[in-house]
Amino acid sequence: MAKKYLTWFKNYQKIQSGNFEKGNIEWFIGGKLNACFNCVDRHLPKKANQIALIYEQEEPDQTEKITYQEMKEKVCQTANLLKSLGVKKGDPVAIYMPTCPAAIYTMLACTRIGAIHNVVFGGFSANALRERLIDCKTRIIFTSNHSIRKGRRIFLKKMVDEAIKDLDFIDHVVVHKLTESEEDFHEEKDKWYEESIAKESKECLIEEMDSESPLFMLYTSGSTGQPKGIIHTTGGYLVYAGMTFDYIFDYRENDIHCCVANIGWITGHTYTVYGPLLLGATTVLYEAVPIYPTVERYWQSIDKLKITSFYTSPTAIRLLMTFSDQNVIKYDLSSLRVIGSVGEPINPEAWLWYYKLVGRERCTLVDTYWQTETGGVVLTPLPGVTPLKPGSTTLPFFGISPVILDPSTGNVLTENNVTGLLAISSSWPSIARTIYSNHKQYLNVYFNQYKGFYLTGDSAFRDSDGYYWVLGRIDDVITVSGHRIGSMEIESALVSHSHCVEAAVVGIPHEIRGQAICAFCVLKDDPKKEEQKKDLDSLRISLSNQVATQISRIAFPDQIVFVNALPKTRSGKIMRRILRSILIGKTSQQDFGDTSTLLDPSVIDELIEQVKLQK
Ligand code: 6R9
């Protein structure tokens, strides 16, 4: 497969080495290759004039098409710009841009010269960006003057200025002009992207990289307050990206693939950029929300662009289901062959709606389970091969050996009809190799808890046919609209507010977004005082805004409950599962499981009362 999907400058000598105990996984050892060459240059002899990128912007008439030849020239110019700004092999480069061609050119330009791209989701706040820049000490950041969401501008460049205030290691900010506007330009550091690349050559030498050289880093939430910089390497990640894209989306020449995920997430990396471009496909860059300007936006694009594979999230499906079926039925969706779902469990009702209304009971619906850390899909049906079951991610992809572990003993549950921790028992090419500058944390989070296994952090059920049903996170990670957010990241934003001394955040089921964020806050003053009641509402708004500015609007709490104390163990750990049970209406002792380690069991009654009162 490595030879089928990639062109190597030098063959690898060994396929695989290392183990989970040591966390020293390597694949295709000794091989030399370049990601940009594999995604761009090698296609040119046959496909120079084929469309590589279709840039579908918010307004339905804003579509731009870019050929492989045009992409190659822009990528080379960007790579030469990087070099002229002093970027070298192994240097990190931050990209804080919307999903647009310039962002893709920058990602590929980094890989062409061996720099490591670090895409930061454009919906993150200045503060969240700053935290990530400090962690990886990047000298250079690419941004856009604006991004656009539902017709409104989001001032990305302003956020960058705020994020890098007093960060003396940032030397350059390269600003792509998404819209005409020249405000906030600082001559010492800032450069306009378009003007700068226009001066550069359209040819740029390719750096030969080791198979195990880092390809990119991407921050993701975990169960600590600090996001983790996940590192993927070149050979293994690319083999797996190309191969999974080919099999799971049943790729055929002239296909038009559309993954609507933003490039700030792993799904955008693997199935908007790398997977499709490795295969020389046409990939749609979708910079639009599903309900703007109308709720027909997705179906209209599929019809207009003749999309053959379409990949979205259960949240989008659940949202679109709430509108009339006529909005879907009236479009010609006969170009579709495969429709996909990713990011969170898809409930059978949403699955059936997607399958019937969009797939017209003709397309394969691939419910694909994977993570930032797995690099590519690990559990999935294969079109034309796997009998489907609504709500199940079905079976492992080639080379993946999932196991279900008993959480208390750590034993592998070998039978079917079992529920437990979802783990993987041997390495695959695109497993993350480390957490940036914290290999110890990498070992602790994924490998040390149950020796010999990669722990996903999710629980799963395996049914009598051996099919997997992923149930959700068992750690303190919340998945809202398919976005991973750590409870502790939100908690630390809340306690940075001058009125909040302590906070605990949990996710509870939400009809459309999968999970809703609920926060319990302990205030400096007694929250129950009658006269404070009116103020509490404005305090809720101010606390929520604090979360939005510290992290992102996607982490905005749905509910804030003020309490006197949080349920804590004797060792000071917050027992979030008790809070979760109370929020979903549980009131009896048995519902709370083992509470013997609780420091003060009387807090439970107060919590139940406050949740009732503050509903
Ligand atoms: C690709 C991506 C990973 C977490 C993962 C799990 C949830 C993803 C899923 C799914 C059920 C699916 N998840 N796909 N749960 N069914 N098909 O989303 O990566 O952002 O790292 O999130 O998302 O909980 O652990 P990432």
Automatic annotation (TrEMBL):
Claim: Nuclease is one of the keywords in the record: no
Domain AMP-binding enzyme C-terminal, first and last residues per copy: 489-573
Record-listed E.C. numbers: 6.2.1.1
Example of a GO biological process term: acetyl-CoA biosynthetic process from acetate
Top EC class, one word: ligase
Keywords carried by this UniProt record: ATP-binding, Ligase, Nucleotide-binding
Domain Acetyl-coenzyme A synthetase N-terminal: 1-39
MF term (GO), any: ATP binding
Domain AMP-dependent synthetase/ligase: 42-427
Keyword Membrane applies: no
PROSITE patterns xrefs: AMP_BINDING
Catalysed transformations (reactions): acetate + ATP + CoA = acetyl-CoA + AMP + diphosphate
Family: Belongs to the ATP-dependent AMP-binding enzyme family.
Stated name of the protein: Acetyl-coenzyme A synthetase
Organism taxonomic ancestry: Eukaryota, Metamonada, Anaeramoebidae, Anaeramoeba
